[in-house]
Specification:
Blueprint (H helix, E strand, L loop, with lengths): L2 E7 L3 H12 L4 E5 L10 E2 L6 E2 L12 H8 L5 E2 L12 E4 L8 H23 L7 H12 L3 H19 L21 E2 L6 H7 L4 E3 L3 E7 L2 E6 L3 E9 L3 H5 L4 E3 L4 H9 L1 E3 L1 E7 L11 E4 L9 E4 L1 H4 L3 E7 H7 L4 H16 L8 E4 L12 E3 L6 H6 L8 E3 L12 H16 L5 H14 L3
Parallel strand pairs: 1-2, 1-11, 2-8, 6-15, 9-12, 11-20
Antiparallel strand pairs: 3-4, 5-7, 9-10, 10-11, 13-19, 14-17, 14-18, 15-16, 16-17
Helix pairs in contact: 1-6, 1-13, 2-14, 3-4, 4-5
Length: about 450
């Protein structure tokens, strides 16, 4: 049996980051990836001749972001698109009221003011919350304090629910009261016109990555680890497990001996949300030039509530909408045609006959993917921010965990995956890894190899 210095399970952003850093430090590293591709939940479909990011899309805030620094160092082009954080204003948004009528400037400003007032009260309610309070509990208390009429409260209530669905992939009543505490966005957000998976593919180029290798068992002892797939076993001094939280929660991997409570507890307590994408491409544009988002409020947006204009990527009129949380779990059980028809019915409730038949669509089902079992982690009721970082381990000095669910500062993001991959590599090496040198090594390798 070949022995490695470190085995990395999973070739998503955290996995290729840690593997690249360890390999650059001279280690013999093996990466075992269950899928037939690198990237994990960064999945770009180029079948139509242009990229469609079926998984991660955004960098959520570029100010002070080491991930943004890496993207710039690798000279990867981006487009500014600052509404991925589910903003109520700040960029051109076409808002429609609960009856599906377009809102004028005055109505839109009142709506923005209403949400900002409710959010100010919500901050106070979260600070005063007790253990066992959900995000639903604190939002209802904040709404009670607004003094708004019932119709205005209903619209903000829907907005709060959808914000949780988009940010966490969960129902608002399943999220801890502090579930969005870490959700601050610093600076603009950007998307990737060449596809986001360029990043992990370039980081992972040249690594020993075994695709189609589904890990079923990880055994550990004082001498290291043995990692087993269905037909092979590999030995190493260390293992870094970067599979999504949903896979850990499903017990698809057996740990021998079982994980200690310090790690098993966070796995059990944290939640894994479902956030599915529906891209719909049209022959003609029927919404306003310059619009970032079409948003239906109240009853008009009960299910399908936001459509994001991502036409700039392909040059063809394209809207992106989401099915998340319980709604997303229901929708992913249906065939594509029914999902798209349902979304179009809602869209035609706003624009009527101006909405033409689409010419193409893409639909994701992350909750049915056996190698993710969901989209990203969230702070479920009964969990805390400490659970994210506690999940990282290490266990017995030989077993480490990385991935967005293990980074408490900004879980559910590619940035979290990147930073956690670096942390795992540093713990294995016992020393810091310089990120500027890491990026420079990638570009130098590409230059010398003629890429």
């Amino acid at each position: 049996m070949t022995r490695f210095d470190t085995i990395v399970i999973g070739a998503g952003m955290s996995g290729v980051t840690s593997a690249r850093m360890l390999a650059d430090a001279g280690q013999r590293v093996l990466v075992l990836e269950a899928r037939e591709r690198i990237g994990g939940r960064m999945n770009t479909d180029r079948g139509a001749g242009f990229p469609v990011d079926l998984g991660a899309s955004w960098i959520h805030g570029i100010d002070g972001s080491a991930l943004w620094d890496l993207v710039q160092a690798l000279d990867i082009p981006t487009l500014e698109y600052t509404v991925g954080s589910f903003q109520v204003g700040g960029r051109p948004i076409e808002n429609f009221d609960g009856d599906g009528r377009a809102m004028d400037e005055a109505a839109t400003q009142r709506w923005i003011d209403d949400v900002e007032e409710a959010d100010r009260l919500l901050v106070d309610e979260i600070a005063a919350s007790s253990a066992g309070d959900t995000y639903l509990d604190v939002t209802e208390r904040a709404l009670d304090r607004t003094g708004f009429d019932p119709e205005r409260i209903d619209e903000i209530r829907e907005f709060f629910r959808h914000r949780v669905e988009e940010q966490c992939g969960a129902w608002i009543g399943d999220l801890d009261a502090h579930g969005l505490d870490e959700d601050a966005i610093e600076g603009d957000e950007v998307i990737f016109p060449r596809g986001y998976d360029e990043l992990p593919r370039r980081i992972g180029a040249g690594l020993d990555v075994r695709l189609g290798s589904v890990v079923t068992r990880i055994s550990r002892s004082s001498s290291g680890v043995v990692v087993a797939t269905s037909d092979e076993r590999f030995e190493a001094a260390h293992a870094i497990v970067t599979v999504p939280l949903g896979v850990l929660k499903s017990d698809a991997i057996t740990f021998d001996p079982p994980l200690p409570a310090e790690v098993a507890g966070p796995i059990g307590r944290l939640g894994m949300g479902v956030f599915n994408k529906v891209f719909v491409q049209f022959p003609t544009r029927f919404w306003n030039d310059g619009t970032y988002v079409i948003r239906a409020l109240g009853e008009a947006g009960e299910s399908w509530h936001s459509w994001y204009d991502v036409s700039a990527v392909s040059g063809i009129p394209t809207l992106l909408t989401f099915a998340a949380g319980p709604f997303g779990r229901r929708m992913q059980q249906l065939p594509d045609e029914e999902i798209v028809d349902d979304a179009l019915t809602a869209l035609r409730g706003l624009y009527g006959a101006a909405v033409p038949e689409p010419q193409a669509h893409w639909v994701t089902r992350w909750g049915q993917d056996p190698y993710s079992e969901g989209s990203y982690s969230h702070l479920a009721l009964g969990s805390s921010h400490h659970d994210h970082d506690e999940l990282a381990g290490p266990v017995d000095g030989v077993l480490h965990f990385a991935g967005e669910a293990t980074w408490g500062d900004e879980p559910a993001t590619v940035g979290a995956a990147y930073y956690s991959g670096r942390r795992a590599a540093e713990r294995v090496l016992g020393r810091p890894v310089d990120l500027a040198a890491f990026a420079a090594a990638i570009t130098e390798r590409e230059r010398t190899e003629g890429r």
